[in-house]
Amino acid sequence: xxxGMPGAGKxxxxxxxxxxxxxxxxxxxxxxxxxxxxxxxxxFARYGEPHFRDGExxxxxxxxxxxxxxxxxxxxxxxxxxxxxxxKASGAVTLWLRCSxxxxxxxxxxxxxxxxxxxxxxxxxxxxxxxxxHPFYAEADVIVTxxxxxxxxxxxxxxxxxxxxVPPRRLPVGLGERTYDxxxxxxxxxxxxxxxxxxxxxRRVVVVTDSAVAPLHLPxxxxxxxxxxxxxxxxxxxxxxxxxxxxxxLQEVLEGMLGAGVDRRTAVVALGGGVVGDLAGFAAAxxxxxxxxxxxPTTLLAQVDSSVGGKTGVNLKAGKNLAGAFHQPRIxxxxxxxxxxxxxxxxxxxxxxxxxxxxxxGPLWDWCETHGAAAVAGETGALTHAVLESCRLKASVVxxxxxxxxxxxxxxxxxxxxxxxxxxxxxxxxxxxxxxGEAVAIGLGLAASLSARxxxxxxxxxxxxIAHLTTVGLPARIADLPRRFTIEALMGRMSKDKKNRDGRMxxxxxxGAGDCFTSSDVPAEAVTALLRDEGxxx
Length: 538
Known about the structure:
Elements: E1 2-3, H1 10-21, E2 25-27, H2 28-36, H3 40-47, H4 49-64, E3 70-72, H5 81-90, E4 95-98, H6 101-108, H7 122-137, E5 142-145, H8 151-164, E6 169-173, E7 180-185, H9 192-196, E8 204-210, H10 214-227, E9 231-238, H11 247-259, E10 267-272, H12 274-286, E11 293-297, H13 300-306, E12 311-316, E13 319-326, E14 331-335, H14 344-361, H15 363-376, H16 380-400, H17 418-427, H18 436-453, H19 460-471, H20 487-495, E15 507-512, E16 515-519, H21 524-533
Parallel strand pairs: 1-4, 2-3, 4-5, 7-14, 8-9, 8-10, 10-11, 11-14
Antiparallel strand pairs: 6-7, 12-13, 15-16
Helix pairs in contact: 1-8, 2-4, 3-4, 4-5, 6-7, 11-12, 13-14, 13-16, 14-15, 14-16, 14-18, 15-16, 17-18, 17-20, 18-19, 18-21
Organism: Neoroseomonas eburnea
EC number: 2.7.1.71, 4.2.3.4
GO molecular function: 3-dehydroquinate synthase activity; ATP binding; magnesium ion binding; shikimate kinase activity
């Protein structure tokens, strides 16, 4: 289905495209006139626009329910909310032929008989219509910018673009009225406005990012939002790194948001890794007692884990994420193209969460052992699979146990390796010497070893887990880290872990890949002995 302004060339391009694809071509306006037995100008004059839009919707719905075809629509069809919803529900591929105002003016010359141009200045009419309709055209699946080139050249570009387009995958996080999609695929930043717009209460946002991500990805996000008529009230950049997840930085973000004039219908967009997502999400949760929130993760760790599920927060001196809130996003856009800009160390750190999901899932662990090295090497197909399957697993777990309230298992299982990992990370004072994913990798090795020592799994499992993590370049033992930790300090950190119950440390243990469980029945002596054997001091 071709959508766009009057003069965009929907009919001219549509006929040529249909011939190339071997499909019939239909023009919605012509079909409407046949069905009504009168010209569109007369329909408007006699019955008004609402009547015309109802008939237009019925004709388009009928055509889309039939055999495959190329369909050109009137300029206002896709801007009508009910018609747009019917088009999306049909599964049709929508393509916006985007033209500049000068190009449109040259093409509509001589069309003064059309209802919208009667007794009016075409430039003024087109400007007004572009402002009103472009935000909705931006929701099209594919966008092709047209120039004054010949229709044949444009048709060739349209066909090439359609052939090269990789449709994003949508994974729902089922939370009743608060259900949202995790959208995974390439090129999502450029289409951000069209993807985000339908779930926002107003077309106003504040973007929170960090100073390392902003030069790489903020221009594309900005252009994508502006194409859909979404106003950016402020762009707030924090320093990169875990140290930005504290109350002083939170206050800076809040002051920046409120100073920009946000209201309760203004959304907060987090562009960056897990630190930005956690910080911006917490700011959205507490500003004015809750603002809409959108996650646009740009790191592997954030795409496969922290952006999904609504956990937000900041760190305290006592430990990681000890102040926070559950605040679900309206949508998550995981643009896999952004992963190409990650330093190798960050990519490896993100992969630790993929390995964790593999151990929880079972079959995904088998995939990790076979293809994990390719993912860490930046192979696009492997990374996309890792993101999709990790998000699929996490979405199902979050939908079943959103607030980690299950007595056993549930969302708490997603903390496999994290009791140890958070202790290591906090004891390193979040200074960057140990990344979150590296701490998780250490935790996975320790969790597997502890499980084996307690008799829950065979010794094969810690060997396999540690060997795989080492193969992909991650630290797997405390002794692998560039600094030393004492047993006393790590045990002290774990005793304050937010997952503990009734004063007892709580661990996620494993019987094998796909068979993990939570337990508070872990002797402290077993933990201290393990830490000592794995390289902790004392």
